[in-house]
Specification:
Structural class of chain A: alpha+beta
Distance between the termini of chain A: 55 Å
Protein name (chain A): 3-(3-hydroxy-phenyl)propionate hydroxylase
Helix content of chain A: 25-40%
Shape of chain B: globular
Largest interface: A-B, 24 and 22 residues
Cofactor (chain A): FAD
Keywords (chain A): FAD, Flavoprotein
Strand content of chain B: under 5%
Number of helices of chain A: 12
Radius of gyration of chain B: 14 Å
Order of helices and strands of chain B: HHH
Helix content of chain B: 55-70%
Radius of gyration of chain A: 24 Å
Pfam families (chain A): FAD_binding_3
Oligomer: heterodimer
GO molecular function, one term (chain A): oxidoreductase activity, acting on paired donors, with incorporation or reduction of molecular oxygen, NAD(P)H as one donor, and incorporation of one atom of oxygen
Number of helices of chain B: 3
Largest sheet of chain A: 8 strands, mixed
Number of strands of chain A: 26
Chain lengths: ~525, ~60
């Protein structure tokens, strides 16, 4: 059986770099061809920054791994040209049910807000995302964009000075060296680069094990997220059932701390668990199973000289809340344009301090939320369990405690409050689009707001006059002029104007708001653009 | 006459829940039980309304 994750997508090929006398110098080397590394490389290449991705493997990752993708990462993937295949293939879902013991205590609806191109969530196996990103790399290569993907290339050593970093890379033909102005380590939670540089990765270890089983079955369960606390089929523990495309179902069993891993992974034991959960008559094929433990931790800072860290290499969270891959994609989104401005000589190196500040803030938010979910799912003391069970008990009858039921707080994008790049705010405007926030999508004539923004600075005007272009030292900011007279459903007004009569928004290349006003003021916009460029 | 509010009424419920657990951290079961008793008495005094308190007591007692 040949599955998508058994086909080599970027097999090792000898590079001319291996025959060079001295290490060949590159602009950016990305280590790791997972979702984060590939997204970053695609972003850079689309902005004409030459990039080489190295990975010790040559295939998409084994097993489904990350399966829940939230709206903001889908919008980022839209910008990168991969949004459509994700959403076409993915399973859209909104409903969830929570069970306690033998009964359903309540259900919830994510109540997807209207007026967005993308849904709140889709479920899709990580290997599909990787496949689509590799397809996108090939497309960019065909267009002549400067992007290279080297499989079978394992980093053995890294060293750096003020102007760049040097990597030793092992291959089937033996090791060679390359250098780069910037190295971005997207090499996962066990990051070899982080280890080679001797950097700390500290946080909380959760003493628990979870068995994941991805099973293929024809089942008529609805497309909903079902979560059980203390069910009869897994006493004292929790369980999760969630649908993926291709009739693949993700089933998670909490196992507790003292377990025999080998025994738990035996097909007959997984079979016993599945039948206890879903009934003796089910017929299924086990596609993938794994036992995982997790930690909530991050690096102290995400930049170490010329080496940057993004995704799991920089921060790790528990899986409850889908905050791993989703936050890694937001790291890449935050970093690409900053690297480009620096390499173009438009911004000082200190612009990268804002990558650290903004994404550390994001990581802390994710760690806080996922730690709280974990504490609810796995009470760490007798009294915690008593409160947890009381919350669940009351939730069946009373709404009062339902907001405290925590089976995962699903990933929402981070607002960079207090970022050094933020400029002026306008008090009459809505809180959700304040400086630091990701732009909120809205229907606009001919399509969607976010699709009109791309990867450059923009000046969005709503019922306001402004020049077509504003520039600061050769960095151009194009105007996107919109009018409330086209805003038939009122989304623009609701999301961008609030009580203001008109709006002028300075939007960063990663589609976060940098500053906003209720009228155009040339000096103020130029000052804010300079600030958003890290000057 | 007031009646017990069983609608969700706490802002930032996750933060509240985390604080509720944190205040118990490091206590023995007996100490936690005593803390809970003190907490109930303080909250009950704050509510004051006899009708509301009776309804809360019955709601907490009710178990399927």
């Amino acid at each position: 059986m040949s599955k998508i994750f058994e086909v080599p997508l970027y097999p090792y090929q000898r590079s001319p770099d291996q025959d060079a006398r001295a290490p060949v110098r590159h602009k950016v080397v990305v280590v790791g061809a997972g979702p984060v590394g590939l997204a970053l490389a695609v972003d850079l290449a689309m902005q004409d920054v030459p990039v080489v991705v190295v990975d010790e493997n040559d295939k998409v990752s084994w097993g489904s791994r990350a399966i829940c993708f939230a709206k903001r990462p889908l919008e980022i993937l839209d910008r990168l040209g991969c949004g459509d295949p994700m959403v076409d293939k993915g399973v859209v879902w909104n409903l969830g049910k929570v069970f306690f013991d033998k009964r359903q205590v309540f259900d919830f609806n994510l109540l997807t807000e209207q007026g967005h191109k993308r849904p709140a969530f889709i479920n899709l196996q990580q290997y599909y995302l990787e496949q689509y990103l590799v397809d996108r790399v090939r497309e960019l290569q065909a267009e002549g964009k400067p992007i290279e993907l080297r499989g079978g290339s394992k980093v053995l050593d890294v060293s750096q000075d003020e102007s760049g970093a040097e990597l030793t890379i092992d291959t089937p033909d033996g090791p060679y060296r390359i250098s780069a102005e910037w190295v971005v380590a997207c090499d996962g939670a066990a990051s070899p680069i982080r280890t080679l540089l001797g950097l700390e990765f500290t946080g909380r270890v959760f003493e628990d094990n979870f068995l994941i089983a991805d099973v293929v079955m024809e089942a008529d369960f609805p497309t909903e997220r079902w979560f059980w606390f203390d069910p009869p089929f897994n006493r004292g523990q929790s369980a999760l059932l969630h649908k993926q495309p291709d009739n693949v179902w993700r089933i998670d069993f909490q196992l507790g701390w003292d377990i025999d891993r080998e025994k738990e992974l035996k097909p007959e034991n997984i079979d016993r668990r599945l039948k206890a959960m879903l009934g003796d008559e089910i017929s299924y094929q086990l596609e993938w199973s794994s036992i995982y433990t997790f930690q909530c931790r991050r690096m102290e800072r995400f930049r170490e000289g010329r080496v940057l860290f993004a995704g799991d290499s920089a921060h790790q969270v528990s899986p409850f809340g889908a905050r791993g891959a989703n936050s890694g994609l937001q790291d890449a989104d935050n970093l690409a344009w900053k690297l480009r401005l620096i390499m173009d000589g438009k911004s000082p190196l200190t612009l990268l301090d804002s990558y650290d500040a903004e994404r550390v803030h994001g990581a802390d938010e994710n760690i806080l939320n996922s730690s709280r979910s974990t504490d609810f799912i796995t009470p760490k003391s007798e009294i915690s369990r008593i409160f947890r069970d009381a919350v669940l008990d009351l939730s069946e009858r009373y709404e009062a405690t339902r907001p405290m039921v925590n089976s995962g707080r699903l990933s929402v994008p981070c607002t960079y409050d207090g970022s050094p790049l933020n400029g002026p705010d306008c008090a009459a405007m809505p809180e959700r689009t304040r400086p630091g926030s990701p732009m909120v999508d809205a229907p606009v004539p001919g399509g969607w707001l976010l699709d009109r923004l791309g990867s450059a600075f923009h000046l969005l005007t709503i019922d306001a006059e402004a020049p077509d272009t504003v520039s600061v030292d050769g960095v151009a900011c194009q105007r996107l002029a919109l009018s409330t007279s086209d805003d038939h459903d009122g989304y623009l007004r609701q999301r961008y104007l609030g009580n203001a009569a008109a709006g002028v928004y300075l939007v960063r290349p990663d589609q976060h708001v940098a500053a906003r006003w209720d009228h155009y003021d040339a000096a103020a916009v130029k000052a804010a653009l300079g600030k958003a460029m890290g000057r | 006459m007031n009646s017990l509010n069983t609608k969700a009424n706490i802002k930032s419920p996750d933060e509240f829940y985390a604080e509720l657990l944190a205040v118990h951290e490091g206590l023995s079961k007996a100490e936690s039980d005593a803390l809970n008793a003190r907490l109930i008495l303080l909250l009950a005094n704050h509510i004051g309304d006899r009708q509301v308190l009776s309804e809360a007591l019955q709601a907490a007692r009710r178990k399927d």
